[in-house]
Amino acid sequence: MRIIQPAMPAHGQDMGGCGRMAIALAAAFITVVSLVACDGFRLLDTKPLDRAGMSYDSIKDMKALHISQPEIEEIAKVREAGLSDVDCVSILRMFHQRNEPFTAGDAIAGLYESGVSEGSVLGLVSMDQVGLGVGDLQAIHLAGLPDELVIDIARDRAAGKSTLSGAALGTMKNLRMDNATLLELVRRGTPEQDGPRIIARRRSGVKDAEILRHFPSTLN
What we know:
The structure is a single chain. The protein is built from 13 helices and no strands. The N and C termini lie far apart (106 Å). It is mostly helical.
């Protein structure tokens, strides 16, 4: 009786199959590595930061914070306005610590260009007060009121308190109320609803000291 042996693949065919498998695995490995590399070292266009005057080391710091392409454009606005590299990195870090993308380039640039100091700008960013209400804070500064008052207003608003509006404070300033009086009203927690009453009293000739007596410290 003849014994039938099972068919075995030719040596060359076996090596060809292994070779094709090895190539496929290598290609898959390269693809995975490439995807990981792209995620960790994204190809970003940092020319806006270069043009704004940011140093190479600071741009590296930005990349380490996983800056996105839209954020590069926003940070460039802040740098072009005159804030330092260190401040720009700090601002991006504060936004990312709140898990927020940085979108406040115009707002921060506007604050700084209007004369608000770098320290005050950073303080407003740390309190998350460069969003919708930033125009009112800028108006307070443009009315000739000090950064100290702007920061106090922002702090109260960050705590959810009602405050005198920028328009009301600007009107009081135009009615020649002293900065010290306005700062005291803010520190007393004077709410927005008292603004028209204070303005009316001032227009009727009431002095600063009397206004302070009529509007004592308020918890709101």
